Amino acid sequence: MSLVIIAPSKNNKAYWQKRLEEELKARGEDVKVEIWPEVENADKVLMAVTWKHPQESLYAYPHLKVVSSMGAGVDHILKDEHLPLHWHIVRIVDEQLTRGMSNYLLAAVLNYHKQMYHYYELQKTHSWGYSETPEVELQPGILGLGELGTDIALKLKGLGFKVSGYSRTPKDIMGISTYAGEDELETFLQQTNMLICLLPLTKNTRDYLNIEFFRKCKKGTYLINVARGSHLVEEDLITALDQGLLSGATLDVFRQEPLPKEHPFWDHPKVFITPHIASVTNPDAAIPQVAENYVRMLHNKPLLNKIDRTAGY
Amino acid sequence: MSLVIIAPSKNNKAYWQKRLEEELKARGEDVKVEIWPEVENADKVLMAVTWKHPQESLYAYPHLKVVSSMGAGVDHILKDEHLPLHWHIVRIVDEQLTRGMSNYLLAAVLNYHKQMYHYYELQKTHSWGYSETPEVELQPGILGLGELGTDIALKLKGLGFKVSGYSRTPKDIMGISTYAGEDELETFLQQTNMLICLLPLTKNTRDYLNIEFFRKCKKGTYLINVARGSHLVEEDLITALDQGLLSGATLDVFRQEPLPKEHPFWDHPKVFITPHIASVTNPDAAIPQVAENYVRMLHNKPLLNKIDRTAGY
């Protein structure tokens, strides 16, 4: 039996290999962990641990049962529409990833609220910009109420903001006004002027943030996207900013990464860019979960953090 | 009977006057509110509501009983060492001021943690600065555990940071490691690499943040001062930054405000300046407290938020 890591873009695969073998041994399983494309015996591979793998690479393993993402997202796995139904797809739930994401989002929200970049620029000209203008009341709205969305919703609520949340299926979160389904989208958008996108990427949410969506937002809404680049129709955001439908955006994810040098976002005065650093999965949190799922698979026990293939997350 | 507002630098005194008269009327008291220096009958003044008043101005009122700050700080009142002991000094406790302060501090802490200004600069050169370097573990330490210090301590704790706090007298705050008195200062400083100054300004805390203090800090500690400019010996901060004792500073308060155009802080690469905007008292929260204290004074009831004259806060 073996397990294969398929993650061409990751530079810490040797670390994953070593630590995975240790974690499996600690669970009584002597399993060989291989790194694609160097696989000794394709027949023995029962589980693949992947990050942005070449789509066809998974089909080399006739006995494959489980495909695990190396992070929270599974869109790189599910984008293959012909994925065999008997493969179980699992993902990582990492408390530190959640904390890191919420810390990034709090910085983004509060920098806008407190105008920190405005003061950062004023300092360069030795300008004292004291003002008693009251702060604009922020009404954060969270698109997507999974692990990450729920965490930031509760933290913003804890800071005293009036928080709303929107999800595909109804959710009940203490102190948060929640909305669900297409019927309630417009009501949700009228409660918010600071929109945080934490949706999973599925065929229903691809291109979700488009000009029609922005026209439904309250005028001057600020957008933060930390989910996936493909949620956002990038040229529509520029139109929405230039027409004043939105007041600005903080973006950590893009349709093409690294963001191409000539992309109009770089120089747009209302767009703040970070290079997909909002939060990264900590291998030390992820590896024991992968090992645990390998053992569960061997013993036909329920897998941790298994994806609902129909919902896509 | 009357009440006088002495606040030469404030431009909203007419609003205070109107709203204070309304709040007093709502409490059954028909009180004239005057604005210094236009006071009709100095004999009738029982209470002064002040912000950075000229020191001698209070002595014009022979029947003065209560001096109220218009904000949370009372250092502008207590700096007069000859203040008659029979004057009661009160201050404002404003939940919104506390929230605003914590929001500013969270932005400052998380901007350092997440290197947001680094990415802000990278964007200007169209540079994609993706990095998987793990974040430095932040250990926030709060100097001063009053209303504001306790609030930010608990909020940082809620984000998963290991938080320590230091105060003159021992405090017990759930989940926070607290230290008190001179004996425990060095132990406290060894637990922290992100120091937030929220001390009251008293004769004991003036010039508190000086080179001797910085030498006791963990090497590379980051400093945030949002209390008063006079807590910090400004030239000592520059020495500490240039010698690498501290890694950087975010400052909202200064010994002279506005900060003089030629001050070395403006161009120091490790200093981020904001113009005393971290948080301002909301008049609509403060005015009812002042009215309430006026009525309590008339009926010899205990005053709200009275200062301990010996402690100085």
Description of the molecule:
Two copies of one chain form a homodimer. Chain A has 313 residues and is an alpha/beta fold. Chain A folds into two domains: 2-94 and 281-298, NAD(P)-binding Rossmann-like Domain (Rossmann fold); 95-273, Rossmann fold. Chain A contains nine helices and twelve strands. The first copy, chain A, has helices at residues 13-26, 75-78, 95-113, 116-124, 147-158, 185-190, 211-216, 234-242, 283-298; strands at 2-6, 32-35, 45-50, 66-69, 88-90, 140-143, 164-167, 177-180, 194-197, 221-225, 246-251, 271-273. In chain A, the strands form two sheets. Chain A has a seven-stranded parallel β-sheet with strand order 8-7-6-9-10-11-12. In chain A, strands 2-1-3-4-5 form a five-stranded parallel β-sheet, covered by helices on one side. In chain A, helix 1 (13-26) links the parallel strand 1 and strand 2. The longest helix of chain A has 19 residues, at 95-113. Chain A starts with a strand and ends in a 15-residue tail after the last helix. The interface between A and B is large, with 45 and 45 residues.
